[in-house]
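Pasting as-is:
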Amino acid sequence: MLLGLFAVITFSSNCIAAKPFRVAIIPFKINSQKDLSFLKAGIVDILSFRLSSENRVIIIESEETQKVLKAFTGRLNETKARKIGRRLNADYVVYGSLTQLRNSISIHAKMMDVSREKPPLVFLNQSTKMDKVIPKINLFATDINKKLSGGFNASNKVFARQNSIRSDMHPIPEKIPANKAKKNIPNPAFIPVNERRSSRKFWQSTDLKHLINGLALGDVDGDGKIETVIMTPHEIHVYRCENNRLYKIKTISKDRHKNHIAVDAADINGNGIAEIFVTSLNTHKNRVNSFVLEYNGKQYDQIMRKRPWYYRIVEVPGQGKVLLGQRAPGSRGPFSGKIVEMTWENSIYKPKKQILPPRLANLRGFAFGDVMNNGPKTGVAYDKNDYIRIIDRTGNVLYTKTEHYGGSNLFFAMPETDRNTENRQYLPMRIQIKDMDSDGKNEIIAVKNHEITGRRLKQFRKFKTSQIESLSWDGSGLAVNWKTPKIAGCISDFAIGDFDNDGRDELIASVILKDGSIVGTTPKSSVIAYDLIK
């Protein structure tokens, strides 16, 4: 609703004006016996993110707002809000309160026009669960945006033209030249754990008008070159990086009735062309409905369709790339099935042997190998709360890292426990086991998406910044070797391979810059790449 209130003001009769509106967001007052400071910051972050992403609103920096607030004491009212707005040279001021009393949670918020030309806009909402507060704000905002979509469309056309001109005119940053020395020295963009510094030493594509849910590397057309398979919620695209630019070769699958959640590529059937394994959910996101694509020399055929399996390709020393599967047992949830190795036999992928017992992990966030560098192969997986665990093949949990990693907005729709309330089981991120610096010791490569509420809301997530980390077993736990600098946006997937066909592997990732969840907006993602050595 708050987002909708912003929209009412911002996209009124002057919606195509060149000068953006300046908006000050005053942190909401929290009335509760519990520590809800995370939600206080979360509401401000959500409003700031939603508004500033459209380039029509300038959010006044919180530090500047805090400085002005120090001059005001007592209860905040309309008069004080306007005075604060004038000192900040703001057009509008948003403030409010959140009150928790027993099982009732209420939000009272106002949007003030500093110039007094428009009356204040008031938002009231009451809920019984903390998890429902922010999602309901978004739902109300969506309802209002739909009513105002006519105004949105007019301005969107203007901004769409501007964005297309900018993306055509700006070249992709050049890739860092690789040092030809024999010694494998890590890319200086990777920050050792004991250092504090920042680096921009990575390659980045132009913005793609897709919500990238996943990506994979492989020779999927048999031409001897590595392609990048990019997966959106309903489409599969094939790209290739050449001359420091990412080109789309072909869109090979479109299906609005499927929701794609994972993609991998590998030649499992041994014919020299990598198959594309797409893990997908149905329209309602409560059943697995996966398929496999393969190039036949002219087009990509579905050699498997409507399969109730999660798929994941892992690279195991001595075996190469191995296909793992996890059968989805109805509506019992994405963590309930056992994980098995699969082989190509009689024109079908068949389970061969069990890798992990049921009810321990979801295959989307699972890898298998010599994690502890002591010989035996074990699994490394995210649990339901995004904690990394090391699990042996009998199901014993050997170690749990008590720090959130991964973090995905993709979810499986569990049976509703409350009427008209969505029950989401968020899916884990990809995790990999790899000897990144060729020193004979395996590392765990994991994403860390930073969530604005610290994962405290079970049914809502919003990620602002991301980074990738390398961890290894030090005898007592997983220690961080290096990490990439934080980047703006949410990393949705990553891969390791010869992305640009230069003979050397890169670490690549898909970054969601704008998810397109606001009506009338277009999603925006990009692909970034790091050389593994300098």
